[in-house]
Design a protein that fits this description.
The protein is an alpha/beta fold and 242 residues long. The protein has 9 helices and 7 strands. It has a 7-stranded mixed sheet with strand order 3-2-1-4-5-7-6, sandwiched between helices. α7 packs antiparallel against α8. It starts with 12 loop residues before the first helix and ends with a strand. 44% of the residues are buried.
């Protein structure tokens, strides 16, 4: 996987990703709603459904952003959610939402680098991450860390963008490469963030290729579910019992 970074300078990717999300945090939720036409909500709902099949007590919502996935998990009945992100700016807006919704007793925010997490080995029953693995500086390192902090038998549910398939491919491809970055630039006021998005999706391994990476990083029983003509994909992977 070739490294795609948000900005053109020489700083390492994780620093650039943190800066990018801090910059767009005030407009992030609004942009998501506009640019996905609201479809991302149904994608997260499907991913939450996969995660809830194991009835987890404690979930790590990695790359939580402003906490939307964590909120859906709490509404689905998860009692304890650690919501983690590298961007303080994103989590600040997430914390405000959690307080408004009276979910502070279920959701706790914790800043963490996904490739070097401060959590003990075998801590969580499940991990969720929506549109975050694509932003890891070193994909393998992040996935190995995810496997480490999962309890044996726990699952990781990963929701990520992928490349549209079939008749929908040229239409979405045009929107994704030319329309989305313009709208994103106008609303977010960041000239790079929504140009980085299609480039990072293009570079990211998907489908069976990503399944193989998950297995090489310690996971088993992997499968994936394409969504909306392949625009997004849910990956489910299990940490072996031994």
């Amino acid at each position: 996987m070739s490294e795609v970074k948000p900005y053109t300078d020489a700083r390492e990717k994780k620093i650039q990703v943190e800066q990018m999300f801090d910059a767009i945090a005030p407009r992030y939720d609004r942009l998501n709603q506009i640019l996905s036409l609201g479809i991302h909500t149904s994608w997260r709902k499907r991913a939450v459904g996969e995660l809830m099949k194991v009835n987890p007590d404690h979930v790590l919502d990695l790359a939580t952003g402003t906490g939307d996935f964590a909120i859906q998990l709490a509404n689905a009945g998860v009692k304890k959610i650690t919501a983690s992100d590298i961007s303080e700016g994103m989590m600040r807006f997430g914390h405000e939402k959690i307080q408004r919704l009276n979910l502070s007793s279920a959701i706790e925010f914790s800043r963490a680098d996904a490739e070097n997490m401060p959590f003990e080995t075998s801590t969580f029953d499940a991990i969720s991450i929506a549109f975050g693995v694509r932003n890891f500086q070193h994909l393998d390192n992040g996935l190995v860390e995810m496997c480490r902090v999962l309890k044996p038998g726990g699952i990781a549910v990963i929701l990520e963008f992928s490349k549209a398939k079939g008749w929908f491919k040229p239409f979405y491809g045009f929107y994704f490469r030319f329309i989305l970055p313009v709208i994103g630039r106008l609303i977010s006021k960041d000239g790079f963030a929504y140009s980085y998005l299609p480039e990072s999706v293009k570079a990211f391994p998907e489908g069976k290729a990503f399944q193989q990476i998950l297995v090489s990083c310690g996971f088993s029983d992997t499968f994936f579910i394409p969504l909306t003509f392949g625009v997004a994909t849910i990956y489910v992977a299990k940490k072996p019992m031994s």
